[in-house]
Amino acid sequence: MAEFLQHLLNGLMIGGIYALMGIGLTLIFGIMNVVNFAHGEFYMLGAFGVLTLFTFMGVPYVLSLALTALFFFFFGGVIQRLILHPLRNQSVEVPMLATIGLSIFLANMALIIWDPTPKDIGLPFPLKAVQLGPISLTPIRVFVFFTALGLIVASHLFLKHTTLGTAIRATFQDREAAALMGINTNLINMVTFAWGTALAAVAGGLLGPIFQVFPTMGAATSSKSFAVVIAGGLGNFPGAILAGLLLGIAESLGAGYISSGYRDAIAFIMIIVVLIFRPTGLLGKSRRLG
Amino acid sequence: MKRTNLLPILVIVAFLAVLLALPNLLSNEYYLRLAIMSGLFILLASAHNILMKVGQLSLGPVAFYGLGAYVSAILSVRYHTPFLLAFLAAGVITAAVGWVIGKLTLKLRTAYFVLVTIGFAEFFRLVAINWTDMTNGPMGITAVPAPASWFVGYRPYYYFILLLVVLVLAALYRIEHSTIGRAMHAIRENETLGRSVGIDSYRYMMFAAVLSSFIIGLSGSFYAHFFQFVGPELLSFDLTIAIVIMVIAGGRSTLAGPVIGAILFTIIPELLRAASSYRMVIYGALLVLLMLFMPDGILPAVMTLLRRIIALVSPALQRLATSLTGKPFALPQPVESAPALANAAATMDAPRALTSLTSKDDGGLTAPNKDKLEGQKELIRVEDLSVHFGGIHAVERLSFSVEQGEIFAIIGPNGAGKTTLLNAITRLGPITSGTITFQGETLNSLQAHDVARRRLVRTFQHTSVFPHVTTNRNLVLAHNLREPAGLLPNLLRTRHYRASEVDCRIRAKEVLAFLKLEHHADTQANSLPYGNQRLLELGIAMMTNPSVLLLDEPAAGMNSTEVEMLMDLILSIRDMGVTVILVEHDMKLVMGISERILVLNYGKRIAMGHPDEIRQNEDVITAYLGRRAADATAN
User: What is the model's pLDDT at position B376?
Assistant: First the structure.
């Protein structure tokens, strides 16, 4: 039982990160109709951002995280403007292939800059575990889970209760009508992409201290975020959160009780099964944001 | 005239001769190996491109590549199967798996399809790594035997892959210029319209999936016996990307595009070897730049450039030729090959066009037959039909019937359920309950293309044509249901097939003449004036030789002259014996030509009868026409 609970909690933590990656990806798809294959690379770069600031330069961890988020918000905006904005009227596979090119470019640039050996970020919090009955929780894991949760809630509140958030939701509903109401939909695209990029970078920065950091770490996370977005329903915000948590738990339990070799297969099986039997996602047809 | 046909053949023969002599021309074995790799990638890219032709992007070709390689390797190494058998088994098993995966996934479109194909590829890769008993896991299968003892050096492999490439490209060329290829083109351009003129898009997509995986499976087998090793790297996402880049960079859904792409992107990475660590960086940047500046690929970009140069140069050439010979110079024009067509076209005039549209036909319906018409009045019967979308009752317990040869109009305010009703009849939309019968046969369980094949054909409220092809090609694409669709008639060009080709050209000319669109025959459909696009829609439907034509607001957006012309056209279509069901808001048109009118409001029938009765009907006036409109149309 204790082992089961431990797996469950680990799954929840990873699941929170998947959800964080997933909402960014699902927003980008919902608003821009772009399947962003570079999402995993933004995650990887976020981890390297924290590595550079926190480990190499000694900036406090939380501040490193915030600076990384800020930097990648602007980075995402620039990428959107330079690459995706010119392709906005092309059929869906064209921007998709452009993001594949971008992901190859970023991953291999990272290989040149930071070489392939995995690196440790080091621990930002004391290692001493908190005992909760039979299960133990390290402070970093608690921090990771609650930061992810906080960012998801903040994203939700932003979409629901700010003017910009309302404009994003309006664009999601009907791009043309939103444009007619005076919403600058090009700006909405840019903000959405920038924001999704920042969330992915923070996710990388959060998991960095728990696992190791290396240039090719983005690929696996990328495919898992896709699984989350598909299972939740493309463009479905609450769906992505639910699917993220579920995938985290399923992987953790699967690796613990079945086979760790097929651990990574769970995400792909999830993609296949959901798309074949329930292509609109776990939560069904209701496409909604926030 | 023969000269124009001979030239491409000569070029191909010369090209083949060079390819056959290539091993003797290349000084270095390394180049021969590169040529073999190019051949392998030409196969992969061309096969992958088959799915592009039906508008589906797969990011999982490596699943089939790996499968073919593993099947062939396992059969040869573990079961000592002779090469030819293992090679064919790889193709057949892979095609079978392609069929199963196609069945599961081809209902999905765009991003959903893309992502599910990645899922399958990655799943296959993980199986290859983890099923160690069969695949040796990450170690891979080594010592796969050569195809035969005399396969020594690169030369035999080169000729083998050359043979495969030539066969595959010849078959693909044949298919492209056949009913199957045109159906694929129609699906890629506008799938819904294709279905509404009788193209079974699912069937053609399945065909594309099976053919594509068959060729990829054979390529996988070649890979296994050429490198004599198979490992899970064969299923990597990087390889998928390499194949996709070849297809897209060359020019997707063209025949030559993937060939050019495959050769370029086999050679470019080799050249980039010098850049070692920057190689993949450049590769990624190249992909981004390609999408930004040549999203359609190199081949279409070059073709456009060539066309521009010719357009610039040809006046100068003309002047030069005139000054040299004193005679005007003209570029050779393509000539129609079928003499029957030339005759038919030359003698065609408008009245004859009308008769020939209806006279020579298989079914008796379109030939108006008075006795039959009296005996068999009811053509379509709608009984107790309801269509609900969640809580919205778009059509509610509606019953009516349409008689043979009449113009039957359906009117009502916006949201009355008119289009929903049309969608239900043509089976593009759902039916919640009730039945629709056509000549005694229930349509409920049919799919859209089946309904079209019973010659109930519709047009759409929002202009729906095949946008990126010419007017004439639009009509040709709509001819599908009158052509043999099997693989053999298409590959072998049977007599029946050739007859249908001639019929297609004649009919396209007739329809163009009927709609007075001849001068726009070579105009791209989406650059036609709006009114002409609406006429083209009508023409697309007429190509199928319908017995019932369902028009969804054909006059929307037309000016009054165009409406007058449309009225005449609909009347002459009716006179050909076609029953017309018309959904329309233009009261002048509705009252002017229809024999009976059904009025809907909130999905329910509020009146039905002759135009005069409808004009007087109090319910209709309150719900829809309004007092003033009723008075106006009475004049």
Answer: 54
Q: What is the mean pLDDT of chain B?
A: 87
| A221 vs A215: CA distance, rounded Å | 12
Find out whether B134 and B203 touch, Cβ atoms under 8 Å: no
Q: Which helix (H) or strand (E) holds B192?
A: helix B191-196
- For A225-264, the pLDDT digits (tens) are 988 888 888 888 899 999 999 999 998 888 878 777 777 7
The letter for the amino acid at B570 is I
Structure tokens at A129: 């575990």
CB–CB of A10/A32 below 8 Å?
no
CA distance linking residue A12 with residue A9, whole number of Å: 5
Taking residues B78-90, what's their average pLDDT?
96
**Cross-chain CB nearest to B112 (options A86, A100, A275):** A275
Q: How far apart are the first and last CA of chain B?
A: 60
> Is residue B481 a contact partner of residue B197, using CB atoms and an 8 Å limit?
yes
- Residue listed under structure tokens 């971008």: A102
What are the structure tokens assigned to B512, written together? Answer: 């163009």
Amino acid symbol at B20: L
* Chain A contact set for B115 (CB, 8 A): 35, 226, 230, 271, 275
Any A CB within 8 A of B275 CB: no
| Residue-range domains of chain A with CATH | 2-277 (1.10.3470)
User: How many Å apart are CA A187 and CA B478, to the nearest integer?
Assistant: 42
Distance CA B534, CA B529 (A): 9
Residue B529, Cβ density class (10 Å: 0-12 exposed, 13-18 middle, ≥19 buried): exposed
CB atoms within 10 A of CB A171: 26
Task: Report the predicted TM-score, pTM, of the whole model to 2 decimal places.
Answer: 0.86
Q: Do B287 and A97 touch (CB under 8 A)?
A: yes
- Quote the ipTM score: 0.89
Strand duo A135-137 + B378-389: pairing: unpaired
Q: Which helix (H) or strand (E) holds B392?
A: strand B392-403
Across chain A, the runs of DSSP E, i.e. the strands, are 130-132, 135-137
Q: Which helix (H) or strand (E) holds A71?
A: helix A61-79
- Residue B374 pLDDT > 60: no
The total number of residues written for chain B in this structure: 635
Contact, B134 vs B77, CB < 8 A?
Answer: no
B141-142/B229-230 β-pairing:
antiparallel
Q: How far apart are CA A241 and CA B200, in angstroms?
A: 38
Q: Residue B515, Cβ neighbours under 10 Å: how many?
A: 19
pLDDT in tens, B513-550: 999 999 999 999 999 999 899 999 999 999 999 999 99
The tokens for B277 are 């660590």
The closest alpha carbon to A37, from A97, A111, A109, belongs to A97
Structure tokens at B554: 């054909």
Band of pLDDT at residue B633, cut at 50, 70 and 90: low
Residue B247: closest CA among B261, B236, B237, B268: B261
Structural contact between residues B423 and B631, judged by C-beta atoms closer than 8 angstroms: no
CA-based nearest distance B313→chain A, Å: 32
3-state secondary structure of A121: coil
**A104–B241 C-beta distance less than 8 A:** yes
Q: Strands across the sheet with B433-438, in order?
A: B392-403, B378-389, B433-438, B441-442
**Structure-block tokens of residue B564:** 């007058």
- Cβ contacts of B114 on chain A, cutoff 8 Å: 35, 93, 96
The answer to whether B268 contacts chain A (CB < 8 Å) is: no
Which residues contact residue B313 at a Cβ distance below 8 angstroms, ignoring those fewer than 6 apart? none
Q: Which of B181, B253, B189 is nearest to B464 (CA)?
A: B189
Q: What is the three-state SS of B260-272?
A: HHHHHHHHHHHHH
For residue B403, give the 3-state DSSP assignment. Answer: strand
Is A6:A135 a contact under the CB 8 Å cutoff? yes
